[in-house]
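Record 1 of the preview.
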Amino acid sequence: MRIVIHDKYLEPLTVLALPVDQYRKLNNTGLLRAIIDGDQKRSFIIRTIEVKAPDKERACIYYTEHEEQCLGTMPAILPGQQALFNQLTKV
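->
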């Protein structure tokens, strides 16, 4: 699942692709430690803010207070960007 990570002021930082089990854990507990490239020292905490969306029962906003570590991750490509990304990376 792709999620947008925001800073504590809700400015978007990056997009992360989480495995389904980690996504469920984040939504169930409201907290997840994201580890960058398998290095525990380069990890950061993602937290969840629940909001009531007009068209759904529940929506989540994901944020971190560890902006620098978060920005050190390789961003996931959003579905709408995938075709352009594929074109740009063709050799």
